[in-house]
Amino acid sequence: MSGINTTGRSLLRGDAGILENSSSFRSSLALAGARLVTKARSIQLGLVASWCVIAVVVLWALFPAWFTSHSGTVGVARQQLRAPSTEHWLGTDALGRDLLARIIHGASQSLSGAFVAVGVGLLVGTALGLIAGSARGRMDGVIMRGVDVLLSIPQLLLSLSIVILLGFGTVNAAIAVGVTAIASFARLARSEVVRVRASDYVEAAFGSGGTFSRVLWRHILPNSLTSVIAFAALQFGWAILTISTLGFLGYGAPPPTPEWGLLIAEGRNYIARAWWLTTVPGLVVILVVLSANRISQSFGKVRT
Amino acid sequence: MSTALNINSPTSRLSNVPALEIGNLAVSYRSHGEDHRVVHDVSLEVRPGEVVALVGESGSGKTTTAQAAIGLLAQNGRVESGSIRLNGTDISGWPQKRLDSIRGSKISLIPQDPTSSLNPVKTIGEQVAEVLQIHRQGRGTEIEARVIELLARVGLSQPELRAKQYPHELSGGMRQRVLIAIAIALKPALIIADEPTSALDVTVQKRILDLIDELRDEYGTAVLLVTHDLGVAADRSNRIVVLKNGRVQEQGPTDEVLAAPRSDYTRKLLSDAPSLGKGRYVISRVKDGSPADADHAVIVENLVQDFHLSARRATFRAVDDISFTVRRGTTHAIVGESGSGKTTTARSIVGFNKPSSGRIVVDGIDVTSLSGESLRRFRKTIQLVYQNPFASLDPRQTIFQVIEEPLLNFDPLPREERVRKVEAILDRVGLPQAVLARKPHALSGGQRQRVAIARALVLEPKILVLDEAVSALDVTVQAQILRLLDELQQALGLTYLFISHDLAVVRQISDTVSVLHNGRLVDEGPVEDVFQNPGSAYTRELIAAIPGQRNAFLENSVLNGASQ
Amino acid sequence: MSRYVIGRIGQALVVLWAAFTVSFILLQALPGDAILIKFLNPELGLGPEQIADIRASYAADTPLWSQYLHTIANFLTGRFGYSVQAGVPVSALLLANLPPTLWLATFGFLLAVILAISISFVSVLLPLPRLRAFFHSIPSLFISTPVFWLGILLIQVFSFQLKLIPVISPGPWEVLVLPVLTLAVPISAPLAQVLMRNIDHVLTEPFVAVARAKGASHGWVVWKHVAKNAVLPTLTIGGILFGELLAGAVVTEAVFGLNGIGSLTQHAVSSQDIAVLQALVVFSAAAFVLINLTVDLLYPIFDPRLRIQKGAVA
């Protein structure tokens, strides 16, 4: 009966789908149509720009030498705290190091850290969620109570506790951030598995003689992982933020390393004289995180 | 059977100015930056005291037309051209602010789905009072008294109590009564009823439609009744407007349109509508005399199914002591309204539920004794087709993968053999080979249901359980699927167990029927026996509630068709 | 109903106990006697009697399970051990540092709620689509902004450029303005996002169309129908917001050089003051559990659908 009630909505969907194919020649006819098409493009523009930002940052991380001839760690004498100029586009810091070079060299720190963090959260969390969602019963209860415990400790405090256990450093900070992501990955993966399991097509697969492992592999896994992947992209931006926070607090990469959070921490002693030292790295972080979030949103839309 | 009230002499009371007059209306929706027109050049009028039915299938533009009339198109919708005259005044160009002053007072809405159409965190009383407050009709106690009066008028018992209750404490039918109370509160000139009963059980539907008729008669309000159900339109309207793909196919007085449809599409709709159609697809295969046990494909004996409610360890008996048998090669229908236990019964038969007690024998196998591998093997014998073809196919698989999958679950076949089988079965269900590479979202609802049937048949089962398998489909598509099912049954000697809430469809397709009510069996037998001599008051009520019985000639045609 | 309450409280206690146990295993049991050795540090100036007292309070000379039970008993009676760095009881440190953070967090949270509500409701009430889209994108900008960077930027702009707030010896209120703003922004972002998502969802509900059909204006619909339905579910992220608030306090206090729970946390991590950190973990887990418990128990008061569960079948 439910199918009947959605006539209004299915009408929209159906017609849009049918008309889409013939849209190319139609739009050339109507001026208004053309204007709207450009608007549609401008909406996608944000997504394209996001991919560009991520691509550039990835290139920075892989081939920093392509983008700057300056060193990321060694300063030049008597060039301290220079304002942005043609030689140093973003100025220099208190030790005479080129800020742009430090940002570019720092990309590998932030990106690899975020990869490790999301990797830990994704692998461990999704595995736990999948087990809980497909095993159900007591196993489900135990795992999800464990997840509740993880969630009950504020994320920063949890990652700080883990940093204490593992010691300071880039990789350790990344792992610590990853551990705090386990709980949300596990919750999402479990709810997706439960949702997919309850669907008619999974029951139909069992009904046509499928064994549990085959149905899990053919239907439950592929259909529940889509939103987990979208969530991973979202967590990527969040991980960059959190890692830079740990770096700022002094628990991440040790000082000469050009980590973005550390750059800001080092620059804050000179805010009166050298505003660029704090402002620019922060803007870079914002851009990267915004882009990662925008991209994850586009994944989410594909799902429906 | 006089299910319709006071619409035999409508002309006597009609004035000259129509309550609603739509002229050359065109509506478009904007998506992906482009306008798509979904209503083209629609003209119609509704005179005071008259019911005009706007009939069409999904995608016909009937709901869009109705939404445009009350100025409540979706955000991306726009009236491109045409006029909408309410009591002679064109409101099509009015800004929302100005429309607010007439909505609720001059023109009102009875919505589709009573479950979600009331605000869950406000009391019934508040929500009825709101329409009076917006239009400043009295204050405080005055409004309170009027609310109680309205709730009583729409037939709610204990109106004082109802006013203090929240929507979730009321049944679907009661909620629809509340929404009707809101719609009539200010005695508007026009009520737009958008599929007002599609979400309700058939007996409730009849009572709600009766109430709308009665109120229209009392207040002289005009009603624009949007419906997909030609039977409802036939019973309740003075005039019918048939829409298809956003264009008017035909309009005229209901009796004339039904008796002598001018457009091909209307003729097709009429012949496909189960409640109005020309009768059975199938000649009954039930022979006289009691057959031997071996002749039974399905035997259900004293089936009981209890569910444990987590709260307070209570149990709920969904199925209570049901027995029936199904002869090989015939169609047995299980009929009932929501909560009757029909779906639970079906799921027990295919082995998805373990019965609390009782015995189920399918093709000589005792289902209740199966588990694990033996249950998996049993799946080859009996297959289930679901109601919603949008949910029963994995969106990530291609159609080929969907149909092939059951073959992979049993004795391994070489790939060529599987391809051959899939292609053959696709042919059987009337789909072109081209769909094999597509994914479900690229197919229409009817095509998807054919794929679901193909998947069920590829294992060559003997029995097919069809759980509301045609209920979500438009009537013309529904008729095609029913014809397909009949062909398949004749060609393959299948036994069908047909689960449905729709008695008219059941009458068309099944040989025998069991009527369930609140988990109990209230009636059973060959389908014509049950229809002619219902064995229980409930069955009589169900049959009386089937829409589309107003015209004697129609009823005759159904009966004639049945005996052909 | 009461059965539900008891069950819910029991569940909360189990989570709390598990959080304690995890923190005990991670922080106290693994390093063995490491904490206690630190008390021997002559810089702390503890006499042998005091060290003996501390050892006794940890039951350091008994087996691990006995230490565990001992620590539970201590925590239950409000004794959280001794700070390695300061050599004083952790409870004293917590009490001393709680008030400034409480003020910061309270004001920050209130400002965040005001920000979130105004952004999200303005974004549906504004007449111009472009303005609506602009307000709609504010939270995603907020959520991408590093809190510590925002604090530094605010100091730069308001203290150094505009010279509105003195850097040296500001007044009692002036000292709070920028930290509160810094803290409020990251808290308001998830709140506003959840609110907007709920508002967008509720606006598509059929009962909104019914209200419009009654003649209600857009504003009336938003205030009378959408607001309550959209705000209610945001209560459920209360616990998560508390965590954000604490994390925000750590960073904010670090940026502005304020004293409080945040800077206590930071010092505890820097000096590996495990006893303090464990107390903080257990303390915040307790707060989280308590907030969620309160929300769960209060929810039925606001949402009638959860009020009457008795006799409702399916």
TrEMBL record, chain B:
Membrane topology: Peripheral membrane protein
Location relative to the cell: Cell inner membrane
Domain ABC transporter: 20-270, 304-543
GO MF term list: ATP binding; ATP hydrolysis activity
Pfam family, any one: ABC_tran
InterPro entries reported for this sequence: AAA+_ATPase, ABC_transp_ATP-bind, ABC_transporter-like_ATP-bd, ABC_transporter-like_CS, Oligopep_ABC_C, P-loop_NTPase
Keywords: ATP-binding, Nucleotide-binding, Transport
Domain of life: Bacteria
SMART domains to which the protein is assigned, alphabetical: AAA (SM00382)
Cellular component GO terms held in the UniProt record: plasma membrane
A GO BP entry: peptide transport
Main location as per UniProt: membrane
Assigned protein family: Belongs to the ABC transporter superfamily.
Protein name: ABC transporter ATP-binding protein
Species in which this protein is naturally found: Microvirga vignae
TrEMBL record, chain C:
Chain coiled-coil ranges: none
GO biological process: transmembrane transport
Chief location of this protein within or outside the cell: membrane
Keyword Transport included in the entry's annotation: yes
ABC transmembrane type-1 domain span: 98-299
Location within or outside the cell: Cell membrane
Keywords, comma-separated and alphabetical: Cell membrane, Membrane, Transmembrane, Transmembrane helix, Transport
Transmembrane annotation, as ranges: 12-30, 102-126, 133-155, 175-196, 230-256, 276-299
Protein name: Peptide ABC transporter permease
Organism: Microvirga vignae
Lineage summary: Bacteria, Pseudomonadati, Pseudomonadota, Alphaproteobacteria, Hyphomicrobiales
